[in-house]
Amino acid sequence: MDSPSNATMPCGFLLQGFSEFPHLRPLLFLLLLGVHLATLSGNLLILVAVASMPSRQPMLLFLCQLSAIELCYTVVVVPRSLADLSTPGHGRGSPISFLGCAFQMQMFVALGGAECFLLAAMAYDRYVAICHPLRYAAVVTPGLCARLALACCLGGLAVSVGLTVAIFHLPFCGSRLLVHFFCDITALLHLACTRSYADELPLLGACLVLLLLPSVLILASYGAIAAALHRLRCPGGRGKAASTCASHLAVTFLHYGCATFMYVRPRASYSPRLDRTLALVYTNVTPLLYPLIYSLRNREITAALSRVLGRRRPGQAPEGDLREL
């Protein structure tokens, strides 16, 4: 065991992964590999489909960034997990360096935080499109979308660097075994040998910035949208306007629901093996659902995908409104 005096030395950690289930490892490897390839293919197809459009609404920049974030999000976690599952000789766990663990956690938080901010920016786009349709083109310009996209990335990066520094300044003593398949925040906090509530303040602060602040902006946007829809006298127009928000709402509930359930809770409630199972879902299943949600509900994306895959007849015009995202 490491003593508290040298607990914070960069000696690295052991990722347990799923090494205690040797008979399930081949099946789990094949399952994760299939989901990972499907996730990469779905997000890459959306990027290619949007790039192939002759004219693109500013909102499509947000959709491209969302797909790019999901691509990077899965690449940060899944390939190493697959490599660990395919290597039978790791015993108790797979070694990862102190800096490698810090980098993986920092990138994971940065990408997840950027997505939190991006979903708030997309909610603002829906607000302008529904509440001020005549001013949409003048307000939501490509330049504004590019600045918001950059701000989302920089905001997520800033919060992730601060949180990573705070977490990795904690003393890690005793066992260096992380009961997880990647360097997640809850697993590292569970391993820290201090039990002060002050150690949880950086995570609480990150949750306030990444979850609470964008949530307030999203709720304000959809509150205004709901009021605008209530004033519409045409039921058909109300239904069409509401349908344009369905994809964004579904992705928002998935992302914020998983993040809130995992990280907005006291350390005493952490359960390493349960958290590992839940993380397996939100790092593999939810990124696969996002491209399905957007491609199935958006006729413009569906038409572009059909064109990319060669299923549209020559000369057939794409269907739908570019704003139906």
TrEMBL record:
Topological type in the membrane: Multi-pass membrane protein
Q: Where is the G-protein coupled receptors family 1 profile domain?
A: 42-294
List GO molecular-function terms, semicolon-separated: G protein-coupled receptor activity; olfactory receptor activity
Q: Which GO terms describe its cellular component?
A: plasma membrane
Pfam families on file: 7tm_4
What are the transmembrane regions?
27-53, 59-78, 98-124, 144-170, 203-229, 241-264, 276-296
PANTHER family noted in UniProt: OLFACTORY RECEPTOR
Regarding protein family, the annotation reads:
Belongs to the G-protein coupled receptor 1 family.
Could you tell me what this protein does?
Odorant receptor.
Q: What is this protein called?
A: Olfactory receptor
Show the taxonomic lineage.
Eukaryota, Metazoa, Chordata, Craniata, Vertebrata
